[in-house]
Design goal:
Rossmann fold, about 210 residues, alpha/beta, globular
Length: about 210
């Protein structure tokens, strides 16, 4: 299996990359700075920009699935990239995509019917990132792709515990954090198991 991974130099993306390579999968990544990644026999590194349709097309050549760990950078880079990714996946008949989102786009427990980032449940002052992830959620819903959006809450750098808890479309009760390691581990497990297709999945690591 060959996987296209976006955001491979970020905290979660780099952890996902390590797990994919440990699983003996072939991986192609698109990055702006290839020097940030160590060479590996199963890794193909392409230099480019995820906002460019041509770079996305090159990255998705002959791949079986896509994982995006792209962040927002307080810009529209995420929505621009995902728009190109969705169109290119349809063109190349690739159906499976897993993205890393935010807990803000999960359903609110305290204000039913609205998303967490719009509710009294949210403690964040800025909604810029959540709005970008919300747009991605809508794009994927409107597509015909087999998508899963992993939605961690506060995301500290940390190892995988393999004791994380998940819940479809909502943040698990009592969730305070999801480590980068657990987020990456769940992403790779979901790639293999395909149990959460068509869902946003809230996650939490144990205290």
């Amino acid at each position: 299996m060959k996987i296209a991974l976006f955001g491979a130099t970020g905290r979660v993306g780099n952890a996902i990359l390590a797990l994919l390579l440990e699983s003996n999968l072939d991986v192609v990544v698109l990055v702006r700075n290839p020097d940030k990644l160590q060479p590996h026999a199963r890794l193909t590194v392409l230099e480019g920009d995820a906002r460019k349709a041509s770079d996305i097309e090159n990255t998705l050549d002959n791949v079986d699935a896509v994982i995006s760990a792209l962040g927002t950078d307080q810009t529209t880079v995420l929505t621009e990239a995902i728009s190109h990714i969705i169109l290119t996946m349809k063109k190349k008949n690739i159906t499976r995509i897993i993205t890393i989102g935010t807990a803000g786009i999960l359903e609110s427990r305290v204000d039913p019917g609205i998303l967490r980032y719009k509710s009294s449940e949210s403690k964040r002052r800025s909604t810029v990132a959540a709005k970008e992830h919300h747009k991605v959620f809508n794009m994927l819903c409107e597509s015909t792709l087999d998508w899963t959006i992993i939605c961690p809450t506060y995301l500290p750098t940390g190892d995988a515990t393999n004791a994380y808890i998940i819940e479809r479309d909502m943040l698990p009760i009592g969730a305070k954090k999801t480590t980068t390691g657990d987020t990456a581990l769940f992403a790779v497990k979901e790639l293999m198991e395909n149990k959460q297709i068509g869902y946003r999945v809230g996650t939490m690591s144990p205290e």
